[in-house]
Amino acid sequence: MRESRQDFKVPDHGLNVALVIGGIGAAAIALLVVAGWALSASGPSFTKALPTAAAPGPTAAVMIAARPSTSFIVPTPTFVTPSVLPTGPRDPLLPPEIAAPEFPTATRPAPPVPPPPPKTTPPPAAVSGVAFRCDAGRRGAKATVSLVSTGPVVVTVTAAGESRTQTVSGRASVSVVVDAPNPRTVTCSAVVAGKQLGPIPAR
Asked: Which end of the chain is more exposed for a tag (fewer CB within 10 A), N or C?
């Protein structure tokens, strides 16, 4: 039983020695790290020469990796709060209305006015079968014009200064009677459609 207890105590001394050696090594590595950090802050000369040093143990490598290589300051964002907020409408401002350009209205030409129909003048009436007589009676004389016309014509008969005018058409006759103490001294005349007939004496 005693031998077994002595065997159990031997590993305890070795562990203590290892812990002491590890603590010394850790302290030395810590001093190297602090010195290297101080020199790197003072200038780049030591930073270039640092890789030539002996490679530290696993614990020192972990501590070196944990050391920050660079230092930086996180900027604090600043915000500017406007003191006066716009009080206008939220709707976007619309551009001013632009009046549409005015274009001249094309005037349609007036339709051509048809010329008035030509005035048709009826042909003059044809007159035929004209007979003019001047008869003497016991107490006077009688002048007579008979004719045939295709249209209205104006007939004027005169005897002893007395006249009669009449517009006739077709077959017609116009007469005038005058009293005279000596009928054979009476003269008669007539105008048919603008043509003069006579004068002739009563017979």
From this structure: N
Q: What's the rounded Cα separation, in Å, for the pair 1 and 4? A: 5
Q: What is the rounded (10 degree) CA torsion for 19, 21, 22, 27?
A: 120
Residue in 78, 34, 30, 95 with CA at minimum distance from that of residue 57: 30
Q: Distance of CA 115 to CAs 112, 119, 121, Å? A: 9, 12, 18
Residues 22-41 pLDDT 10s: 788 888 888 888 777 777 66
The 10s digit of each residue's pLDDT in 34-70 is: 777 777 665 554 444 444 444 444 444 444 444 555 5
